[in-house]
Amino acid sequence: MSKQKAYTLDPSPEDYNFLLYGIACPDNQYFIVNAINDVLGIELRLEEYIDLSHRMGKDFKFSFYSFFDEALNLEYNLIPNRSNYVAQENNEKEGGDLFSLFNETVDESSKLIPELTKTDYLLLIKGDEHYHHSYKIAEALKKIPEIITLQEIIPDQLSSKSNLIF
Fold it and tell me: Residue 61's domain spans which residues?
Protein backbone atom coordinates (compact mmCIF):
# COMPACT_ATOMS: atom_id res chain seq x y z
CA MET A 1 0.00 0.00 0.00
CA SER A 2 1.15 3.50 -0.71
CA LYS A 3 1.04 6.20 1.89
CA GLN A 4 -1.27 9.11 1.24
CA LYS A 5 0.14 12.59 1.55
CA ALA A 6 -1.45 14.87 4.09
CA TYR A 7 -2.02 18.38 2.81
CA THR A 8 -2.10 21.27 5.22
CA LEU A 9 -2.84 24.93 4.82
CA ASP A 10 0.51 26.70 4.84
CA PRO A 11 -0.33 30.39 4.71
CA SER A 12 2.41 32.80 3.74
CA PRO A 13 3.01 36.14 5.48
CA GLU A 14 1.45 37.83 2.44
CA ASP A 15 -1.88 36.19 3.32
CA TYR A 16 -2.00 38.38 6.43
CA ASN A 17 -1.15 41.63 4.69
CA PHE A 18 -4.23 43.53 5.78
CA LEU A 19 -5.32 46.02 8.38
CA LEU A 20 -7.41 44.42 11.13
CA TYR A 21 -9.56 46.24 13.66
CA GLY A 22 -11.35 44.63 16.57
CA ILE A 23 -14.61 46.38 17.44
CA ALA A 24 -16.51 46.00 20.70
CA CYS A 25 -20.11 47.09 20.13
CA PRO A 26 -23.17 45.57 21.80
CA ASP A 27 -25.48 46.48 18.92
CA ASN A 28 -26.55 44.02 16.23
CA GLN A 29 -24.63 43.59 13.01
CA TYR A 30 -27.14 45.53 10.91
CA PHE A 31 -26.68 48.61 13.08
CA ILE A 32 -22.88 48.46 12.99
CA VAL A 33 -22.86 47.91 9.21
CA ASN A 34 -24.99 51.04 8.72
CA ALA A 35 -22.89 53.07 11.16
CA ILE A 36 -19.62 52.07 9.46
CA ASN A 37 -21.12 52.79 6.04
CA ASP A 38 -22.13 56.28 7.21
CA VAL A 39 -18.81 57.33 8.77
CA LEU A 40 -16.58 55.83 6.06
CA GLY A 41 -18.82 56.68 3.10
CA ILE A 42 -18.86 53.08 1.88
CA GLU A 43 -21.55 50.48 1.15
CA LEU A 44 -20.84 47.25 3.03
CA ARG A 45 -23.25 44.54 1.88
CA LEU A 46 -23.86 40.98 2.97
CA GLU A 47 -22.01 38.86 0.43
CA GLU A 48 -22.11 35.36 1.87
CA TYR A 49 -21.62 33.30 4.99
CA ILE A 50 -18.32 31.83 6.12
CA ASP A 51 -18.60 28.21 7.27
CA LEU A 52 -16.36 27.12 10.10
CA SER A 53 -16.30 23.55 11.38
CA HIS A 54 -15.06 22.70 14.85
CA ARG A 55 -13.35 19.64 16.22
CA MET A 56 -16.65 18.53 17.70
CA GLY A 57 -18.13 18.29 14.19
CA LYS A 58 -20.40 21.30 14.58
CA ASP A 59 -20.78 23.88 11.83
CA PHE A 60 -20.96 27.60 12.49
CA LYS A 61 -21.74 30.36 10.00
CA PHE A 62 -20.42 33.90 10.14
CA SER A 63 -21.92 36.77 8.13
CA PHE A 64 -19.48 38.29 5.65
CA TYR A 65 -20.00 41.93 4.62
CA SER A 66 -17.85 43.38 1.87
CA PHE A 67 -17.24 46.54 -0.15
CA PHE A 68 -14.55 47.43 -2.69
CA ASP A 69 -13.58 51.10 -3.02
CA GLU A 70 -12.29 51.42 -6.58
CA ALA A 71 -11.04 54.99 -6.10
CA LEU A 72 -8.72 54.03 -3.21
CA ASN A 73 -8.23 50.38 -4.23
CA LEU A 74 -9.33 49.21 -0.77
CA GLU A 75 -11.44 46.20 0.11
CA TYR A 76 -13.43 46.38 3.36
CA ASN A 77 -14.69 43.20 5.05
CA LEU A 78 -16.74 43.09 8.24
CA ILE A 79 -17.31 39.81 10.08
CA PRO A 80 -19.04 39.28 13.42
CA ASN A 81 -16.71 37.48 15.81
CA ARG A 82 -19.62 35.45 17.25
CA SER A 83 -21.89 33.14 15.34
CA ASN A 84 -24.70 30.72 16.02
CA TYR A 85 -24.53 26.97 15.66
CA VAL A 86 -26.07 25.60 12.48
CA ALA A 87 -27.72 22.24 13.06
CA GLN A 88 -27.13 19.57 10.46
CA GLU A 89 -30.32 19.01 8.44
CA ASN A 90 -29.85 15.27 8.23
CA ASN A 91 -29.41 14.90 11.98
CA GLU A 92 -32.96 14.60 13.21
CA LYS A 93 -33.57 14.50 16.92
CA GLU A 94 -32.21 11.14 17.85
CA GLY A 95 -33.14 11.26 21.50
CA GLY A 96 -30.77 10.22 24.16
CA ASP A 97 -29.91 13.66 25.49
CA LEU A 98 -31.65 15.72 28.12
CA PHE A 99 -32.76 18.50 25.77
CA SER A 100 -34.33 16.20 23.20
CA LEU A 101 -36.55 14.75 25.92
CA PHE A 102 -38.14 18.17 26.40
CA ASN A 103 -38.10 19.04 22.69
CA GLU A 104 -35.86 22.04 23.42
CA THR A 105 -33.03 23.44 21.34
CA VAL A 106 -29.80 24.75 22.77
CA ASP A 107 -28.45 27.96 21.30
CA GLU A 108 -24.75 27.35 20.82
CA SER A 109 -22.27 29.86 19.51
CA SER A 110 -18.65 30.09 18.57
CA LYS A 111 -16.05 32.78 18.02
CA LEU A 112 -14.18 33.17 14.77
CA ILE A 113 -11.12 34.32 16.74
CA PRO A 114 -11.57 32.76 20.20
CA GLU A 115 -8.70 34.64 21.85
CA LEU A 116 -10.47 37.95 21.17
CA THR A 117 -13.07 37.44 23.88
CA LYS A 118 -14.24 41.07 24.06
CA THR A 119 -14.31 41.68 20.31
CA ASP A 120 -17.75 41.64 18.70
CA TYR A 121 -16.75 42.48 15.11
CA LEU A 122 -13.66 42.27 12.92
CA LEU A 123 -13.00 44.84 10.20
CA LEU A 124 -10.40 43.74 7.63
CA ILE A 125 -9.07 46.25 5.15
CA LYS A 126 -7.02 45.02 2.21
CA GLY A 127 -5.34 46.93 -0.55
CA ASP A 128 -2.00 48.01 -1.90
CA GLU A 129 -1.71 51.02 0.39
CA HIS A 130 -4.13 50.19 3.20
CA TYR A 131 -1.73 51.43 5.90
CA HIS A 132 -1.77 54.94 4.40
CA HIS A 133 -5.47 55.16 5.25
CA SER A 134 -5.37 53.52 8.69
CA TYR A 135 -5.36 56.77 10.70
CA LYS A 136 -8.33 58.27 8.83
CA ILE A 137 -10.29 55.02 9.09
CA ALA A 138 -9.63 54.69 12.84
CA GLU A 139 -10.58 58.31 13.50
CA ALA A 140 -13.82 57.92 11.53
CA LEU A 141 -14.74 54.72 13.40
CA LYS A 142 -14.13 56.44 16.74
CA LYS A 143 -16.96 58.84 15.86
CA ILE A 144 -19.49 56.02 16.24
CA PRO A 145 -20.70 56.48 19.84
CA GLU A 146 -21.92 52.87 20.17
CA ILE A 147 -18.41 51.50 19.62
CA ILE A 148 -17.06 50.82 23.10
CA THR A 149 -13.52 49.95 22.04
CA LEU A 150 -11.61 49.95 18.77
CA GLN A 151 -8.26 48.26 18.60
CA GLU A 152 -5.85 47.58 15.80
CA ILE A 153 -4.89 43.90 15.83
CA ILE A 154 -1.76 42.37 14.33
CA PRO A 155 -2.94 39.16 12.61
CA ASP A 156 0.43 37.40 12.95
CA GLN A 157 0.07 37.49 16.74
CA LEU A 158 -3.23 35.57 16.75
CA SER A 159 -3.11 31.83 17.38
CA SER A 160 -6.25 31.30 15.26
CA LYS A 161 -5.17 33.65 12.46
CA SER A 162 -5.85 30.97 9.84
CA ASN A 163 -9.59 31.59 10.40
CA LEU A 164 -9.08 34.97 8.73
CA ILE A 165 -8.09 33.50 5.36
CA PHE A 166 -11.15 33.42 3.10
Answer: 15-164
